[in-house]
Amino acid sequence: MLKGQGKVKKWLSTFLRFARRWHTPVAIIAIAFIILHTVAVFMHGFKFDFNNISGLLSLLILLPVPISGLFRYKRMDRKWHLRSGITFAILFLIHSFL
Length: 98
Known about the structure:
Elements: H1 5-44, H2 50-62, H3 64-73, H4 80-97
C-alpha cells in the first residue's frame, strides 16, 4: 500500500457518497434554470447564430438525460445516462465558451 493511499480512499468514498446523495436534486434545479434560460432566449428573439444553435443542440441532448436517469435508477439502463450526460457537458462547454 502506498503512503497516504488510505486517506485518499477515505476522502474519495466520502466525496462519492455526497455526490450520489445530491446528484438528483442539483440536476433538477439545473434543468429548471436551463429551461428558464431557453424560454427567455426564445422570448427575446432567437437568431440563427453559433451561440444559439449550440445552445439548442445542447438542450436537445439534455432532454433524454433525466429519462435515462430514471431507467438507470430502475437498473434498465445501459450507460445511456452517462453517455448522454457527458455529451451534454461537452456541448454545454462549447456553447458557453466559444
